[in-house]
Amino acid sequence: MQRTILVTGSSGLIGSEVARHFDSLGWRVHGVDNNQRAAFFGPAGDTRWNQERLVSSLRSFTHHELDIRDRKGVLGLLATLEPSAIVHAAAQPSHDRAAAIPFDDFDTNAVGTHNLLEAARRAVPASPFVHMSTNKVYGDAPNEIPRAELATRWDYADPDYAHGIPETFRIDASKHSLFGASKVAADVMVQEYGRSFGMPTCCLRGGCLTGPAHSGVELHGFLSYLVRCNLEAREYRVYGYQCKQVRDNIHARDVADFIARFIDEPRPAAVYNIGGGKANSCSILEAFSMVEARTGRPMRWSYEEKAREGDHVCYYSDLRRMERDYPGWKPTVSLDETFDQIVDAWMRRGPATGGQPLKRAA
Known about the structure:
Blueprint lengths: L3 E5 L4 H12 L3 E5 L3 H6 L6 H10 L3 E4 L6 H11 L3 E4 L13 H22 L5 E6 L12 E3 L4 E3 L20 H21 L3 E6 L1 E3 L11 H11 L2 E5 L6 E6 H13 L5 E5 L6 E3 H12 L4 E5 L9 E2 L4 H6 L9 H15 L13
Parallel strand pairs: 1-2, 1-4, 2-3, 4-5, 5-8, 8-12, 9-11, 10-14, 11-15
Antiparallel strand pairs: 6-7, 11-13
């Protein structure tokens, strides 16, 4: 019997990768997306192009134009579909944007997640429920770890964090931003439905999730937006930390692969930090060098001494719990390959030429 998966945020980076992955496995894929990213970020955040690509290229994909804040609509959809698995990737994703739209942020991230959880409990309580959380649930507490300043990046000086931030790191008594707080609410609720009702739920606390399908904008989508700025000769603004702030980057394909493994072997109230780990980390200065080497175009950038509120100076994920619980899983797409794919994708889409493909600089 063909299984059905429901994917929210299906036109976004992770949602679309999950849709493609499960379609290739022979599942029926139902996507929920109402292009809210365009409402949050303007035309540059529009994901209709990705929706159209899914509709035209996948064998068994159905799009649902639904806002996850619509409780009645969410309850009705899950009761009708009775999906075998749910992947919740829809969100207001911006650390910075949340302060300007606090109700939209909380209603999307916290209330929308609760709507889906309760709909799942009523309709399909045994179906795995995977929630895309964020490393911002840790707030700025990782900044308390002693650091060493290297030539092009910051790094942890405490050997206890040589592998990165573990899932046991505290999530309270720190500054989160309103986005981080709304995602904490969702994260804890996903865990609670696992503990209280025995549902197979999973929170994936993402680092920088990336890939060629990202519609990167200044307020969300670090590598995608950085590459786009380079190709369009736009100025990229850096906020604080001498441009040496570090993030770990994981390709959406590796995220989708882990999600599939969890769905095959689910467990209740699971929490994992999902990212590229130290091997796939880079600072902003290092990212500038990597994109310039691929495009031959100099990076235009400006610097503001004041860092973003609650931002991480250095963050990379400790992947050991994931690798222990799901032997054989690890990031397979290197940072170099990820850069190659993002550059090629933006050049094909031609951001600087009204949709005409760009040519690599000599």
